[in-house]
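If you are new to this repository, start here. Below is one unmodified record pulled from the training split, so you can see the exact layout before writing a loader.
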Amino acid sequence: MRQFDHEKLTVYQAAIQFVAWSSELLTAVPKTIAIYNQLDRASTSIPLNIAEGNGKHTPADRCRYFDTARGSALESAACLDVLVAKSLMQPLQTSTGKELLSEIVAMLVGLIRSNSPTRDV
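And here is the target side for that same chain:
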C-alpha cells in the first residue's frame, strides 16, 4: 500500500495514536461540557498540522505548522489537566495520554530544530 510522506513520520503515527486514545477517553465525558469539544479539536489538530507542515517546501513554512501541532499537543495536555481538575477523570486515567503527548512534543521539537538549526524552541 502506498503511503504519503507524512504517514511515515513516527510523530504523525504517535499523533494518530493519541487521537484514537483521546476519542476513547472522551466516551466517558458528557458532550455538553466545553472541554469535550476543546480536546477533540486540539487532538485532531496535531496530526493535521504535522501532515500539512510536512508537505511545505520551505523550512519556515514547515516550522510554522510543526509549531502549531506542538501548541495543540500542549493544549491537549492542558485539557487532560482540566478533566482531572473538574473531577471528570482521575490522574491515572490521563497518564497514558500525557506520556504520549510528551513524546509527541519532544519529536516535534526535534523536527523544528532540524528544519531551523539556529532556532531555540
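Two things worth knowing about this chain: The chain is about 75% helix and 0% strand. The radius of gyration is 15 Å.
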